[in-house]
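Key result, reporting period 2: structure in, sequence out.
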């Protein structure tokens, strides 16, 4: 299965290596040169100043967005009047591109880690919030009636009935938020940071160190792929019961 999913990537990598091997272009150096420089920079020198700050910004921002998105989503589900009143504002902010807020965020947070964390948290919050609300609204009414007939409190029903039932869609929102967060991690670091992958790529481009710039792009691709793989693995563990139930229902 793993080989079947990687063959096309390996083919593209091989084509890139062959077609660029004799390149003399400053803008598109040979892949072997890029990989050699990649080893010199990212395996030894720039991990601490380039990669780790970016991952820390993403972790903090995404964690804040996940906590607030699920908590506020549960609140809006529990209070239909509040949900209806805030719906226009929520959807307006959801479709608002987060990068346009960077100039205002620079004024509020200044240049540094707080800017990246704030932009990442803002961008990740909305898909998590909306998926949480939609998932909770899709809870089977019969299950809620059963919980009430059993005398379960609201909080107990939320934890044992609503959240488990909404968890597949909540996880989908978390995955969408993670993808958005990776993009905003780079964008925010290119504008208002002094370290990180985005800052490294921008500085390499401005200094015309284009081979270094390509290594930063490769690092970003590796990080995005690795985070997605780890998230999917965690999702399959957390929702094992859900996928098992779907498999049983398909067999019937």
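The corresponding designed sequence is given below.
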């Amino acid at each position: 299965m793993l080989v079947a999913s990687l063959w096309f990537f390996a083919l593209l990598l091989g084509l890139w290596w062959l077609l660029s091997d004799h390149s003399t272009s400053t803008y598109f150096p040979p892949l072997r040169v890029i990989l050699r420089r990649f080893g010199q920079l990212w395996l030894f020198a720039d991990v601490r100043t380039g990669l780790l700050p970016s991952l820390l910004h993403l972790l903090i921002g995404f964690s804040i967005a996940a906590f607030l998105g699920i908590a506020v989503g549960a609140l809006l589900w529990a209070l239909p009047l509040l949900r209806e009143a805030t719906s226009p504002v929520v959807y307006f902010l959801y479709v608002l591109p987060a990068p346009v807020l960077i100039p205002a965020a620079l004024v509020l947070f200044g240049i540094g880690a707080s800017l990246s964390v704030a932009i990442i948290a803002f961008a990740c919050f909305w898909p998590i919030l909306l998926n949480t609300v939609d998932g909770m609204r899709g809870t089977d009414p019969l299950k809620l009636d059963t919980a009430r007939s059993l005398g379960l409190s609201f909080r107990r029903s939320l934890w044992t009935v609503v959240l488990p039932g909404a968890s597949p869609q909540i996880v989908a929102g978390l995955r969408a938020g993670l993808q958005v967060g990776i993009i905003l991690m780079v964008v925010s670091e290119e504008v208002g940071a002094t370290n990180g992958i985005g800052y490294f790529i921008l500085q390499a481009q401005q200094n015309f160190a284009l081979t270094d710039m390509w290594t930063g792009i490769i690092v970003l691709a590796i990080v995005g792929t690795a985070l997605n793989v780890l998230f999917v693995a965690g999702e399959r563990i957390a929702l094992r019961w859900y996928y098992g139930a779907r498999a049983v229902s398909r067999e019937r």
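Residues 48-237 form a domain with the MetI-like fold fold (CATH 1.10.3720.10). The chain has one domain: 48-237. This case is discussed further under Risks and Mitigation.
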